[in-house]
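Lab notebook, bench 4. We co-purified these components, and the gel suggests they stay together. Before we commit to crystallization screens, I want a quick structural picture of the whole thing.
Request: model the full complex, all chains together.
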Amino acid sequence: MEAFAELVDKLYFTSSNLAKSALIKQYLSQTPDPDRGWAIAAIAGTLSFDFFKRKLIKDLITERVDPVLFDLSYDYVGEMSETVSHLWQAQADDPPGMKVLPSLAEVVNTFANGKRAENRNYLITLLNSMSAPQRWALLKLGTRGLRIGVSARFLKKTLAEYAQDCGSDISIEDVERIWHGVAPPYKALLAYLEGKAEAPDVSESVTFQPLMLSHPLSDDELQSIRASDFQAEWKFDGIRVQLVVTSAGKALFSRTGDDISHSFPDIIDELETQHIYGVFDGELVALNPRVTDAHEIKGVLEAKNDNQTHYEIASFNQLQQRLNKKKPGNKLISNYPCGLILYDVLSLEGKDLRENTLVERSKALANWFKTQPYHFIHLSRPLDFTDTHSLISLREEATQLEQGYIEGLMLKRKDAVYVSGRPKGKWFKWKRDPRLIDAVMMYAQRGHGKRSSFYSDYTFGCWQDGKLLPVGKAYSGFTDDELKQLDRWVRQNTIGRFGPVKEVEKALVLEVAFDSVHPSNRHKSGVAMRFPRIHRIRWDKPANEADHLTTLQAMI
Amino acid sequence: MHPEKWIKTDKTGLYCRALDAYIDPMHPVKRAIITHGHADHARPGHSEVYATPQTLGIMRIRYGDDFCEKPIPMEYGQTRSIHKAQLHMVPAGHILGSAQAVIDYKDYRLILAGDYKRHPDPSCPPFEVTPCDVFVTEATFGLPVFRHPPINQQIQKLLDSMALFENRCHLVGAYALGKCQRVILALRALGYNKPIYLHGALLRLCEFYQENGVELGELIPVSELDNPKVLAGELVIAPPSALNDRWSRKLPEVMTAMASGWMQIRARSKQRRAELPLIISDHCDWSELIQTIKEVNPRELWVTHGREQALVHQAQKMGYKAKALSLVGYEEDED
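Here is the predicted assembly.
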């Protein structure tokens, strides 16, 4: 446990990637199994359970520390685990502390097998026996909240480097391919990396394959997009998913590899391997029935269906009703039907297509699509374009679309193979223009993590009957320098305090960008924005010239 | 007469009617009492300035000979009658020359402690506990999360890193006045006898400490070196602003350390991009603040800049009458 705590502490403060991977490789070479495998899992975020709940930590600390002082400390530090690790103090009736800290594997196993009351005592004992940085590492580990500037991708890269240091000829792509088919504490994986065993076989397992991701398109790059080299598609406004159907089972994964099958039995339960067999890349969207004679959705090939029901893509807001539902009821499912729009295929009927070009994959996908019987599976079709001008007008079309189911354009190189990660120059996303309003800052709150102690979360409002009504909250879109200016402005213009929230002079206009706006009964203003962010700070604009609520309502 | 009747705060700072003077004012005033030489407390342009001789010396270094019209030195313990009240200065243990201002007026005593600490510091006389009716305390680190470790432990961390990365130039960010000299003293106490290299902004104040009998050993300005590459494996101290500045890019394989009480908070260290955070503070941590309140045992506690709310709450829980005095303009980061 000491070595693990030291590793994460050092990684946290190290800024150079070179030094970070050196630290990890050193740890892997010096630490025995299964400890090092659990450490990999903790850093990559692949532990499958919490050791304890955040609520337990909160309960324990409020038993030990004055609640007012705890709240003030938490507000200042901006992070629960760190606040607790500093404030923690042993109590007289605690179980006795340990002389030597247990190994990481022992900690994992004890929490995994313990009952709730036992785990509570074990946690207290550990915390009593640890230094503040060790407590921090344990709390982060136990709640799976370790954020130390090491992404899963970076870790895999480091694992490949480690293998190369051990004399094995293993690339990051090799690691990516088996990664989701192996589980902590990764004994087989590590043996393979060190050249002591064959690669673990994951071909038939129902596992997530890391997605190919896109870069935002810059103005310079726009000029280089030729119809001969690139394929254009709509960027649909749903969530990216990967559908995996093999002989071993079937699953729907989110873009981060979370299995979300349970939320969509209406899709998953229907699928049969005789009709669908492979790994597909696509968008999960909400659907609305539409009248048959209405014009079809451009850029989407609808599934054949017998009962002549046709659909149109519904808002993201509607999709949200279906997300994160562990067991959706029948009523919810029938009120908010969902479907898939597929745009790529990684393997089909047992054949790996990732080394094929986009054109070849698209063709294979389209051919298969003709044979598939599911009315909720649709196909994304390439959009016609000839030159930069026609691309610009396609994007303009997306911006103007009333329903807003199109987020912009995807531009993909026709000759690109399917590579996990974010390869340069292959896939581009080109979002439509955001919607904008001018709102007035009303309240500010301190940020968390990197922005701890900066006032970085702003609630803003629009006018109604001469009063400001809060319409949303934003905490991104500004540069670090702008953050400092905003932070200073908040401190100098505070007129009230409600716990951690500062009320400010209603004097600063923020130009807020957002993707869309929806009716909401949760907010007093009756509207909710999707992904609001600060677009510009209007130091120049008087507050009374900011927008009225009616402007926002009209954008619904 | 209760100090509530003769003390007020405004945009210039804390005004004492009985002395007809401001204490550590933000703007030029007719009469100023200055508790210590940090730039947010000691500003130029006042007519009369009452301060310890060391504080006056620091102001002279920073702002030139005409930093005020009339400097009036106050030795520790020496009492002066000013306007209608009496003033004397008592050591505060914060930096060289730092003082608590003790004001007696009509049977009441108010102490403005300024910035102070209780950790041992060989560069200045220790904080003196003085009984009073109203004790005005700072609360820079007034939250129970702040526990400052002993300075030797932190400096040992630096020495360990220098031993481990023996070819890297260790660059320590430390404020020019107080922190820098304290870091040097602790290094010397742990047996580090090699020359210590300094950024130009730290030179004059280190000399001033040496003139005042604080022995710092051999110090060499980085600017005197022909080739900065000789700094591989050496120790350089610079003001925090120079850490990520162009200045530090000429140093070979830099390992960046930062000496500040704020380094205890991870995000703060990250914001400073310090790879080696050293928790060294010239202020009280939470337990020292509480210890001081108990020892001074005032009838009433007023809390100024920092995290007033928490300390007021704690003092009230301990049975003291306590309130927050809102003072504007003191820089949170000055530590």
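Helices of chain B lie at 53-63, 151-164, 179-189, 203-211, 266-271, 286-296, 308-317. Worth comparing against the SEC data before the next meeting. Chain B has a mean pLDDT of 93.
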